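Appendix B, Record 12. Input sequence as logged:
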Amino acid sequence: MAKFINPLTDVGFKRIFGDKEIMLSFLNSLFEGEFVIKDLEYLDKEKDALPGDERNIIYDLFCKTDTGTEFIVEMQNRSQLFFRDRILYYMSRAIAGQGMKGDNWNYKLTPVYGVYLMNFSISSDGHIIDDVSLYSKEQLKEGIKAKPFTDKVRAITIDMHAFNKLENKCDTTLDQWIYNIKNMENMTSMPFKDKNNVFAHLETLSDYYAMDPEDRKVYDAALRRSRDYYATMESAKVEGLAEGRAEGRMSEKYENARNLKQLGVSNEIISKATGLSVEEIENL
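Logged structural output:
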């Protein structure tokens, strides 16, 4: 068993980022130069279904800062269709959850930020961090640039696959965080703790052998589920490639048979040349 838990698993991620000191350090490194979060509280991760809808939504982690800004922080291991739409839907639900009952609410909203660490890529541009705000399309005239429609909704995706820095090249705290998250399961000692005490805390918190037996049992089960999923996906990928190759060979046989028929070659000879039956060739 590895010395440190895998933060890319659901249980590992929530154990690590469910710690306030860890979350504060990570978010402040992500938004360094923009603002500083001094304190935060964790909110209920489950949002009740809207009227007429049976679907509750559950965030990985949901917290509010000392200034009222809300953060959805999630680890996404599995690629899925319409992933960006899912992000927008989840963030919209957080915005909708701010609505106050009664007649005295003036629609003033606090910002909602979504931070998504992804163990897969959703773009091909190689960017590690994609920072997206909602934009209005005021481009009726040439030369007018799109400008932010609102500063209340903002999504930041972090592509773990695009991060390939070596340990000695991680100069910023954010680099150090991403490096540790990506490589933690294969480490024997936590790097960067001599530069930042939060990584010494991370080392203690993520030590597999320091977990109590019940927490280890829950983590082991989550790790097995994660490995089973990846094993299943790899098997499906291999089977799909084999099936694709077989279909490609069959398609080539049919194409060759059609060409030979056009040249006037008899069906019997085409059958011997391609391995197709005379009946299959007659039906081409």
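The mean pLDDT is 81.
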